[in-house]
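We modelled the chain as a single entity of 516 amino acids. Its sequence is:
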Amino acid sequence: MTALTLASQTELLAVGTQDGRVYHFDLRDAAKPLLTEATQASEQNKAITALGYLIGDRSLVVGDAAGQVAVWMPVREHPGTNQTKMTAVHRFASHQNAVSDVTISQRDKGFITTDAEGEIRLHHSTSAQTLLTLAPKQGALRSTYFSPKADGLVSVSKNNHLLHYHIANPYPEITLATLFSPVMYEGYERPELVWQSSSGSDDFEAKFSLTPLIFGTIKGTFYAVLLAVPLAVLAAIYTSMFMHPDYRAKIKPTIEIMAALPTVVLGFLAGLWFAPVLERNFPAMTGMVLVTPFAVAVSAGLFLLLPASIRHRIRPGVEALLMMPVIIAVIWGCLATNTWWESFLFDGHYKPWLQTHLGLNYDQRNAIVVGVAMGFAIIPIIYSISEEALTNVPKNLIAGSLALGATRWQTLIYLVLISASPGIFSGLMIGLGRAVGETMIVLMATGNTPIMDWSLFNGFRTLSANIAVEIPEAPQGGTLYRTLFLAGLLLFVATFLLNTVAELVRQRLREKYSQF
């Protein structure tokens, strides 16, 4: 036996040997110590010379006679089992001499190693980096002590010199890798991208990956735009090109007034009203998606089959309003037959069906709810700008196209859309920027789960919502506080670059189609 260490709660004991092995003992029953595992911890079969449990008593720092330093932790061998195996998850640059001491931080996952010649190195387990190297002139050290706040250390040399160092190392767990790349955390089976800033225990290993938040921002924006863009642009086209002017004068201001609705109200309705309604009637809503396009197409075909004498009695520009009773009837019919739809589409229970056949779990507050609510919020912006761009196409161009025999659809596709494309593109980009920065709807309607999954049926967390959630509890000047400001900076840079690219594209479109 060449080294040993006892965990802070006296429940674990690690013993290092001359041949590079570490024996792990369970001391919870003090009368019957139990050997749980023996690990070959030294790659060169050198003697284990220093051991120490990191705060939390899960990770073990191992130093050997060759100067190697590694962090070992129990990792589950197979998913679904509790059987673990000690695994080397982080390795650090080797000392030139045998590691003589391991000193553990009482504040975080940091630790200090010293070697036989007195070299001191400061490491951090989460970030897997060596932060500082010191080479005192006093030679070999007998003992090293890490201050409770991890801001200083004291060493005693073998010739009885007392060495004191002040350490300015406020954010040891943050690197580009820990912010954006998978990290092997305690209790995990593989490197993961995780945001979890706090816990109820002082032994907690903070996880500050911004990647799940960036992913959530992209996911929420994608589903909102997926719903809003077709509805807003097609509504703008119909209002501008086909709707009767009397109705246009009433409907256009009504849609624009929608933009005045506070997002906190939309988030409240989405989270507390729409989410439960969707959960109860999801099979019916699925039926609506399937039946509504078919019903509209059949109704339009039947309308065209009517005698011309009847069709000409209908005021031009109001034909689409005749579809409103059809759509209302489809919605009512699907809601009334919700049980039948669930039996027909999902074998009687849609949640088990989704889990069994698609491997998807249905959460009440999910991407569908956010997509509908956030799409409702950006539809007025996209609609208003697109409709203005379409309306501002010179009337003489449209009249000339119609006079030459083109239909309204041909005029729309080959003339109006091309001429109005810069304005429509601007509307899309403004709506996209609005969705990227949305806070209250996402905060109230998603469940704020920072997971990376494109599924429609679970939630997510965006950068803006995360700032709103975390900033009230973040200690000023701490790692979390500064990480949140970094998230805000990333959000600003992303929207700035997006708007810059959008403006360049708009200018190109304007120059290309200026002849119209």
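As a brief sanity check on the tokenised model: The longest strand covers residues 84-92. The mean pLDDT is 88.
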